[in-house]
Amino acid sequence: MMKKTIFFDIDGTIYDEDKVVPASTKEAIAELKRLGHNVAIATGRASYMFKELREELGIDSYVSLNGQYVVFEGKELYLNPLDTGALKEITLFAEKNDHPVAYIDALDMKVNVADHEYIHTSIGSLKLAFPTHDAEYFLQNEIYQAMIFCPQENQAMYAEAYPGFKFVRWHPLCMDVLPGNGSKANGIAQMIKALGVSKEDVYAFGDGLNDVEMLSFVGHGIAMGNAEDEVKAAASYVTSHVSENGIYEGLKLVGLL
């Protein structure tokens, strides 16, 4: 079989609801690698948040922070930071509305408040500890993604006030803040361009709203059975639930296993 490139989202795709990798997923990814395919991760997480997972699966290539920080075989390939001045403006706007803000680079995540219920609830759903407090972190470091912790009904006012940013909801109490051109699709485009790979030889698995552009961009988008309807509509295929051998069954569905 001709060499293919396959991208996997993490939460709800590689990880099940308990943040565990199903045995069938481990076996499927190992087999893809044995067959000589390029295997990569495409996630909203920062690289430090899935270091152990990369080591567990033997994956050195990834599109992280929803496409803003791209690495191929351990080497930085594409960086797309947020504008510091604009980030300062939106932080002030969020503070007026009592909405905490998180700043994320490749190495860490800091929040501008020391404690808040919205942060505990949303970050806790990822099985991550509460981030440390540093309100000026974004002034001293290149930030590739921010997060604003606010209810769904407040998202529209941010989109209206700051059209230069892209806002992607991933939790009822939190949304990602990306550059206007930011997406997993853009990050994948940067990687396959560098590799000289055609979109028709690219596959992607995902389940969340931040996967919609990715699944519609690649030649073969596969939505997990646990994905939202909007995600399934963007995909070419729908596999079974993550806990029902979704990755393995999806790879069989598209003929890669």
| Percent of residues in beta strands | 15-25%
Q: What is the overall shape?
A: globular
Unreliable spans are none
| Average of the residue pLDDT scores | 96
Return Rg in Å.
18 Å
Helix tally? Answer: 10
Task: Describe this protein's structure.
The chain has 257 residues and is an alpha/beta fold. It is built from ten helices and 14 strands. Strand 7 (109-111), helix 4 (117-124) and strand 8 (132-133) form a beta-alpha-beta unit. Helix 1 (23-34) runs parallel beside helix 10. The longest helix is centred in the middle third of the chain and has 13 residues, at 84-96.
What labels describe this entry?
alpha/beta, 14 strands, HAD_sf, globular, 6-stranded mixed β-sheet, 8-stranded mixed β-sheet, isomerase, 257 residues, HAD-SF_hydro_IIB
Concise synopsis of the structure shown:
GO terms for molecular function: isomerase activity. By secondary structure, the chain is an alpha/beta fold. It has helices spanning 23-34, 51-57, 84-96, 117-124, 137-140, 155-161, 184-195, 212-217, 229-234, 246-253, and strands at residues 5-8, 38-42, 62-64, 69-72, 75-79, 101-104, 109-111, 132-133, 145-148, 165-171, 174-179, 202-206, 220-223, 237-238.
